[in-house]
Write a structure and sequence with these properties.
Length: about 1150
Amino acid sequence: MFNYSKYTNFTWRENLKDWGHLISCGKARLSMAGSAASGLEVLLSTLQNSNDNESTLNILSVLDELLSAGTDRRIYYMISKGGSEALLRTLVSSMKRVPPNDIVLLPLMQLLAKVGHRDRKIGHKAEEAEAVHPTLSLLRCSLHDQRRATACLWVLRVFASCVSTAVLLGKEGTIELLFKLIPKYNLKQTHTIKATIDALAALLNSKTNSRHAVDRGYVTTLIKLFEDWHYTDLENQYVPLRRSLLHCLRHVTSIHAGKKALFESDGISILYHTTQDLLGKRGVELLVTSATQIMRKCYPKCPLPVPSSQSVYSFPVPGRPESSHSCDSSSHDGNLEDESDEEQLENEELDTKEEDEDLETDLRKLCIRPEPDRTRQDLKQYERFFPELQSDFKDVDRSEEASFEVKDILGDNSEKGLKHSEKHSSGTIRNNCSSHCGSSDEQVQKSKQTHRSCETTGTAVSELYQEARSFHSPHLITMRHEMLSILLERHQFSIPGHDPEIYTNFAAKTKSIAGYSLLAFPDFWGHLPLPYQQSIAERNDGVQRKKVFEDIQRLLNPGDNIDKVVFDLETPSLHYNSEDSESLCFFSRFESGNLRKAIQIRRFEYDLILNSDVNCSQHHQWFYFEVSGMKAGIPYRFNIINCEKTNSQFNYGMQPVLYSVQEALQGRPHWVREGNEVCYYKNHFSQPSSSKGGQKGVSFYTLSFTVIFPHNDDVCYLAYHYPYTYTALQTQLQLLKQSLDPEMVFFRHQTLCNTLNGNPCPVITITACPRSQNWNNVQQFRNRPYVVLTARVHPGESNASWVMKGTLEFLCSNVPAAIMLRETFIFKIIPMLNPDGVINGTHRCSLSGEDLNRQWMKPDINLSPTIYHCKGLLSYLNGIGKPPIVFCDYHGHSRKKNVFLYGCSIKETLWQSGSTASTTTVKEDPGYRTLPKILDRIAPAFAFNSCNFLVEKSRQSTARVVVWKEIGVLRSYTMESTYCGFDQGIYKGFQIGTRELEEMGAKFCQSLLVLSNNLLLHDKKLTSHIPAALDLDDPIRDQGSYSILEDDEPPCVEEIDYHSDGCSDHEWDGGDFDTEVYEAVANFSEKSKEEDDKCQQEKNGLNNSKKKMCFSSKPSQHLPAAEPSSQFASRHSFDVSSNHHYLC
Ligand SMILES: [Zn+2]
């Protein structure tokens, strides 16, 4: 205990009086620093022991002044010194007096509210001090005394911030009491009413109390009260009070019964209509936000309108019973985190700590190279993929070339290495052209008639399409061919690097599960990048809210909903319904197409459901579908309602892409960013009720956008990103080969293996032919280091294919840098690691339902043949002592902007994880950083700031980590390209287009040339040409992004509340509460002054010596905020000679 006798020179009363006097005169600056840490304890101790009103008041006054100046830190300091306990004990003893003495009680309770409000344990402390019951009793007997009742309510509200205290109060009938105290609209006692509602809200924060309130029917009472106040407070003068009512509702609806009660008492309708009145008015924003959150929370969950979340397509996986799917929830632990390929910041809530926990901290695991998973014998089969290393390469390459041509034409898969996969694809549902080669004259005749009768305007094309569909025949590709010829003849249009006829021929060989017989127009007609860049879309205020309100209207006015299924993969009869002019027509049964179902909700609004990955019940992100039968100039709203990710770049300026057939035929064959009012938010759909697979309790998200189509009756395509099909790749490879001079460029197109569904997976070799057959030249040719590039392991990441297209075209071009590159390196490229996924419109997985980029450690030859053989190829190179100098796997990233690399570093991983393992003994070549640094300098799309070189446990079976660790490739990367756009460099503010993606592919090659220069890989003669070849002095391209460290996302205009259970407003904001108490006290004082004045007039000069103390909770206006340099300590003999600083 404090020892008074130590301070012999100190006279309490006088000093305190002196203090109080100084404070009230504003003469003293209170020193908080350098003075008396224990001075506070003295005050607190005196407070509890004082039996004298005046001293108590003085101390309270001093404390109040001390706490009002400066920041909250003073209050926290006081709490740490037992301030709450002291105030509570003082309160308990004050309350014992009969009758209660308001002169002490009111300021005491006011101070207690202020301090307790910031003390997390105030409830427990109050229970310990036995202050809870007396306060409640005091409230009960003060119901007619506004001031005292209000003070009691503040204190009770503060006590109830501890759940156990709230429950205790609930058991004592406090909830009933408070409900009795809240009158309808009543302007006389607004402060008391507000205090009552706030106390109630605090009580309802406990689920027990909420349950109790729901049982007593109070949800209806609350919603009626809210409605009453809304319609009477027309001037919006009592917004905080109405908001408090919403707080109560929000708490009570955090339990299921509360949601139900609110719904049943018409609460959603009341909240909806009251909110509509407030839109666009000033100062009521928080009411709207709060009410919207409650409505979203209480919107009854309804199952997704599909029979099961399983994909409509299934594929018999070799060695696996048909019913079991690897993507079921059981194998995923409900963890969507790992879904994100290399997406480090997948989940908004994932904090850095969790990320760091994913880092590999075991030095042994990081450093030790695992045993190779194949024998030398196993690797022999890969020899044939290295024709450049054969002894007589000229002969070899000719024969290879020839044999490939034959295979290509015949579709022959008799090669040794292909047998295993071919065998397993026998169960495939094959319905492609080659298996139905008979022809029906009638149909062909009909199609010819159609062509003849049509002008090839857009309308005609549209009709042609609808007509075509009505056949539903395997000859459509043939028919298409014919139609195409007519179109090409009339439009005389050609796109560089694309050939519709070659595309159509390849399409006939592409094997899909559903047996696609139609081509999507943009794929065979081709796409040209727009002549300009498109800006990142601006986000308009309130878009999400507007959409949410429209969703709520569905619930409120179910009679207005059309709810008509207009497309369903499972109901083919719906596919060709072109007669209904009131509905749009949807279609997705074509390569890379993904749309499972379309439901017309309102005249111009459709809910769309995406198909899960094959043999899966999830991964809904990629979409690509056709829409026709539209009217021009009308905004159509599309909602993709089964998205899974918790946030999306669609909330940050990204738009879907649109392709119009009519525009294309008029000479503008572009995929363009399109769609207004784009937003992404949590919706009210849940797993389909009968769903076997899928995660229980998973919430879905809606991607909503509005499209105004440019033409009437057009045929348009909408996609998540610029589509790039497997057939497009085959076409591109064919055209590339045709464009080359075989004497100059060594270009080989081989088949790595067949996929599960029997599609050949191409592997490309590109280098320069030796200058001559003399020994030196041939040796130089064979000794060139290897670069291995792969892409599109994730089918939904079509951006990766466009980057790869840029790489391939650059490498085959005749620009000096490309010639030098070919002379320097041998490129092995597997441009599409997951052809089946791309063909069948999956987002993430292969037909086995597995993420192929999680199979690299132990790829299964039967389930993941492309990965197995790609790894085999790399292991072969390693085995012959030629591990690649660079390996890079191209991907797309849905959460970040720009293009960047992920690499692998032991040291950086250990540092980042805060590992204690010593890195001094670890020898690591920092060369892995060179390539990204070069890219940062030469590629405008690239951002070094977004790169990292960490090895995560969850990524241990990705290509990047396995190639680094097992094959020993120092420069093993994942290259991530944004789906969205750029926030740095010269492209800042623009969305990414195919031109930028292709450019990135070319820049990647150029960076290899700079790297080779750094590594002195070629002779001096060549080296001197490199800067000129790369145009490195171009100042524009030199804009690096080293300097600015920006957040991933710039702040948004509107706070994005994509979760319905988010809580953006803080009811416990200390400042708000203080202001409120201050205002109430000022108000009471004002009234009481009037009364006093009246009294005084009546009593006419009667000696009224009792001085009323008016406490201020606001920082005193007349008193300058205390400065640490204040002279208080030196002025007074209040020497505690302590080194404690009151404030630090
Ligand atoms: Zn990926």
